[in-house]
Amino acid sequence: MTASFECRTVSALPVEQLFDRARNIDLHLDSQKQAGERAVKGVTSGLIGDGQDVTWRATHFGIPLTMTSRITAFDYPHSFTDEQVKGPFKAFRHVHDFAPTATGSVMIDRVEFSAPLGFLGRAVERLFLARYLERLIVRRGQFLATCG
Fold first, then answer.
1. 56-65 pLDDT tens trace
2. I need a labelling partner for 30 at 20 to 30 A (CA). Which of 38, 46, 48, 50 fits?
3. Bond into 64 cis (ω within 30)
């Protein structure tokens, strides 16, 4: 993997509730409305679980994209990992870790990815793709931590 980042989201929600919100397809779609994201295959609503797939369609940078992700690790309510099995990235891995706090919980998102196209892809990662993805993950975390 070439690029990576980590985001921390603090929430007043109990750790179990934040964990379930993070794997809820419907809430994910609500958090990504600006990209017109849709779940089109696999688990398309409700909670996704261990070994299950979802195929997303969205438009980013004016480009329609399709990506299939699989839950490759699952430890309720502490952690789960999704990885791209088909899509625009050379590789994409997103680890979601959760821990209780005195006032609720914290979610830590760790994302590692590699763009295709060799040197050109690495340049795109550094110039804007990592920051773009990090903003998406931060907004998603804030949405999950605060929505009713």
1. 999 888 889 9
2. 50
3. no
Q: Element (H or E) spanning 83, and its range?
A: strand 79-86
Residue-wise burial string across 70-93, b where 16 or more C-beta atoms lie within 10 A, e elsewhere:
bbeebeebebbbbbbeeeebeebb
Predicted local confidence at residue 1, as pLDDT:
56
Distance CA 63, CA 60 (A): 5
Backbone angles phi and psi of 133, in degrees to 5:
-65, -40
Measured CA to CA, the distance from residue 37 to residue 29 in angstroms comes to 6
Express each pLDDT in 65-104 by its tens digit. 999 999 999 999 999 999 999 999 999 999 999 999 999 9
Calculate the alpha carbon distances from 116 to 76, 120, 137 in Å.
33, 8, 21
SS3 147: coil
